[in-house]
Amino acid sequence: MKVALRALGFEPAPQEIKRLIQRLNNSNKERDTPDEKNKEGGTITIDYNDFEEIMTMKMSERDADSELEKAFILFSNEKHEITFEDLKGVANELGETMTDEELKEMIFEANKTDREGAVDAHQFMSIL
Q1: Inter-axis angle of helices 64-76 and 84-93, nearest 10
Q2: How much is the pTM?
Q3: Among residues 62, 74, 51, which one has the least CA distance to residue 124?
Q4: Partner residues linked to 117 by β-bridges
């Protein structure tokens, strides 16, 4: 688990790994069995579902707002809003095959306040 967390950009302390496993154990008490979680010598064995749950918990702890702000800057081409043209450019770069109507609908849904055809940073953050 420590290697996987490091590969994802985390530097977990032993206490952090114990905390993650303890949180998992607390949330899954009804299905845990003694031979499933505690092995001799202090080694703890987890199955793939447990591992996936721990990784999901850890990834959700990342600074999401900072990441979303970076994404907004990329989508908006460093302007104060994302326009239809910006969204279409990103879709093209990513190889998405959405129609203009679908992209316009995305802008319309994201901007529920004034439906002006552009999405500001606050609207972008709230929809994601």
Answers
A1: 100
A2: 0.51
A3: 74
A4: none
* pLDDT, tens digit, 9 for 90 and up, residues 60-89: 776 677 778 888 999 999 999 999 999 999
- The per-residue pLDDT for 30 is 52
Measured between its terminal Cα atoms, the distance across the chain in Å is 29
Q: Which two tokens stand for residue 15?
A: 């206490």
Q: What would the two tokens of residue 10 be?
A: 């985390």
pLDDT, block means (10 residues), the chain with 128 residues: 78 81 70 46 74 80 76 91 93 90 91 82 85
Max Cα–Cα distance, the chain, nearest Å: 64
CA-only gyration radius of the chain, Å: 21
Bridge partners for 83 per DSSP: 118
Q: Where are the domains of the chain?
A: 2-60, 64-127
CATH superfamily of 64-127: EF-hand (1.10.238.10)
Helices (H), the chain: 2-7, 14-27, 34-37, 48-60, 64-76, 84-93, 100-110, 121-127
